[in-house]
Amino acid sequence: MDLATYFEAVILGLIEGFTEFLPVSSTGHILLAGHFLGFQNDGKTFEVLIQLGAILAILTVYSHRLIKIAVDLPTSQKARLFVAGILLAFLPAAVLGASLHGFIKQVLFESPRLICTTLIVGGVALAWIDRLDLKPRYTDIMDYPLSLCFKIGLFQCLALVPGMSRSGSTIAGALLMGTDKRSAAEFSFFLAMPTMAGAFAYDLYKNRDIISLDQAGVITVGFIAAFIAAVFVVRQLLDFVSRHGFMPFAIWRIVVGVAGFIGLYMVG
């Protein structure tokens, strides 16, 4: 691997870290960026495996909260229901993702025009939802009922299409079903932990035979960049959403999608 490849890995890692927990689709961003940079890797393993950096970032930032929940599990029904809700929300995308893994990686991941389209469509949908006069019924993720968690998990399945955004799909679904903006974003953080860890482990297993030592070096560089960027985002996002809502992200999605179409038209 030459120096330029490592530089591209840093760029893609930063993109992953900055966008993973925003409702803008990290996968869509790094696939488009990789397409225009000419970044190649067997089985698209890099794009999935550098998510480990973002996973460790959110585990680091939320370590005290996670420890408290773990300690409370034996004595607190609320803690047990919360963990059950996260696992229930995780299941639909896990089952569907494993079933469609080959199609997603070999077909959907290879379609930049699809990604541009879903970025724009998702941006329009997010802008529409953000402007709705919704009356929140749930403002604390620890009080989300199991039925609500499962429905949010069904919305997460939309993110199997690159460009739709895992966090964007779960946040949009949560808002439509009566949560406030801050708790919707926070629930998306917690749901990201098993979802991203499961995707990482499954993709690592499926591609174990094609990951070389050269790839390991590039993945490590991307992982470190993703970790640093994701820590910053996780620390800032909830306060930003409380002040500004999701409209800035909707606009960003549309701009990136349109720019992607222009780039594809001009350079292919």
TrEMBL record:
Q: Where are the transmembrane segments?
A: 48-67, 79-100, 112-129, 141-164, 184-205, 217-238, 250-267
Which GO BP terms sit in this record?
cell wall organization; peptidoglycan biosynthetic process; regulation of cell shape; response to antibiotic
GO CC field:
plasma membrane
GO terms (molecular function) for this protein are: undecaprenyl-diphosphatase activity
Record's catalysed reaction(s): di-trans,octa-cis-undecaprenyl diphosphate + H2O = di-trans,octa-cis-undecaprenyl phosphate + phosphate + H(+)
The record gives the membrane topology as: Multi-pass membrane protein
What is the superkingdom listed in this entry's lineage? Answer: Bacteria
Subcellular location per UniProt equals: Cell membrane
The entry's keywords: Antibiotic resistance, Cell membrane, Cell shape, Cell wall biogenesis/degradation, Hydrolase, Membrane, Peptidoglycan synthesis, Transmembrane, Transmembrane helix
| Stored InterPro entries | UppP
Q: What class of enzyme is it?
A: hydrolase
- State the signal peptide span: none
Chief subcellular location equals: membrane
Q: State the EC number(s).
A: 3.6.1.27
Function field: Catalyzes the dephosphorylation of undecaprenyl diphosphate (UPP). Confers resistance to bacitracin.
Remarks, miscellaneous: Bacitracin is thought to be involved in the inhibition of peptidoglycan synthesis by sequestering undecaprenyl diphosphate, thereby reducing the pool of lipid carrier available.
Hey, which family's this protein in? Belongs to the UppP family.
Name listed for the protein in its UniProt record: Undecaprenyl-diphosphatase
Q: Which organism is it from?
A: Cohaesibacter marisflavi
Q: What lineage does the source organism belong to?
A: Bacteria, Pseudomonadati, Pseudomonadota, Alphaproteobacteria, Hyphomicrobiales
Originating gene: uppP
